[in-house]
Every structure is written in C-alpha cells, then in structure tokens.
Automatic annotation (TrEMBL):
The lineage of its organism: Eukaryota, Viridiplantae, Streptophyta, Embryophyta, Tracheophyta. This is BnaA06g16400D protein. It comes from the Eukaryota.
C-alpha cells in the first residue's frame, strides 16, 4: 500500500490510476 503525496502534482494522475488498479486487485 502506498500514500498519494499532494506535492507530486506531475505523477498524481498516474498514481490515481495505479491506486484504482491496486484497490481493484484487492
């Protein structure tokens, strides 16, 4: 599990997708 860092604006959309995929697998 990982936390989304607000300071990472560039990778925020990517992390959001990875977070959704990660949550969907579990």
């Amino acid at each position: 599990m990982f936390c989304l860092k607000p300071n990472q604006g560039k990778t925020k959309p990517q992390n959001q997708i990875l977070f959704l995929r990660y949550s969907g697998e579990n």
